[in-house]
């Protein structure tokens, strides 16, 4: 069963679907279409370990008060300095602002306040970016938070269940090696792909208020 099929159970809640770009956007777009839901993005950046940027030591979401999630056990094990963390956070926020200007342009974000929000990515590894995104949505007043991914390790699902109201993963393989390893094709999206996808969805559903109406 596809992820979008599993999410049909939330159709009556008139949810908002949020993607973690870039990779989560195609998955989120399909879900939003099936649910006739608004589609928006959460701009979150992984904080990579020194010399091993693919290893997350945390993640950050921008906003009036940026939300930062740190994996203190990994930081302690690697001996990551506070100076490195602050430098990495600064660089991440700068990249988030670059993407915000490019992706959002003058379009206002869809508010999660008092709504059921479904946060979608192409998969979870450590879950750091999704944890930061879910925490930010909770602080923004979301009534219910659903995390939805095609594939994730069981440990990440258990950890996120402490933050989100529901976590849906189509597959939880063990052992888990990488997100991309579970896709037949795993192309890397570009900024242009993100802009085109958002423009296409909003052209098809121009009214934020009526998007949940088939």
UniProtKB/TrEMBL annotation:
Residues 11-168 form the Phosphoribosyltransferase domain. One of its GO terms (molecular function) is transferase activity. The keyword Disulfide bond does not apply. Pfam families: Pribosyltran. InterPro entries: PRTase-like (IPR029057), PRTase_dom (IPR000836). The keyword Transferase applies. Keywords: Transferase. SUPFAM superfamilies: PRTase-like (SSF53271). CDD domains: PRTases_typeI. This is Phosphoribosyl transferase. It comes from Hyphococcus luteus.
């Amino acid at each position: 069963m596809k992820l979008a099929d599993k999410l049909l159970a939330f159709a009556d809640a008139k949810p908002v679907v949020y993607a973690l770009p870039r990779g989560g956007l195609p998955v989120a777009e399909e879900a939003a279409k099936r649910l006739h839901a608004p589609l928006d993005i959460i701009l979150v950046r992984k904080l990579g370990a020194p010399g091993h940027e693919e290893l997350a030591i945390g993640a950050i979401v921008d906003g009036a008060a940026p939300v930062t999630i740190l994996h203190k056990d990994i930081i302690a094990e690697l001996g990551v300095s506070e100076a490195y963390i602050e430098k990495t956070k600064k660089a991440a926020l700068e990249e988030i602002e670059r993407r915000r200007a490019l992706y959002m342009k003058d379009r206002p974000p869809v508010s999660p306040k008092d709504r059921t929000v479904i946060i979608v990515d192409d998969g979870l590894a450590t879950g750091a970016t999704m944890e930061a995104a879910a925490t930010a949505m909770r602080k923004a007043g979301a009534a219910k938070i659903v995390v939805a991914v095609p594939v994730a390790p069981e440990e990440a699902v258990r950890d996120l269940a402490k933050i989100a109201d529901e976590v849906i993963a189509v597959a939880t393989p063990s052992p888990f090696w990488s997100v991309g390893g579970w896709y037949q094709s795993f192309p890397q999206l570009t900024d242009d792909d993100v802009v085109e996808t958002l423009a296409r969805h909003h052209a098809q559903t121009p009214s934020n208020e009526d998007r949940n109406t088939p």
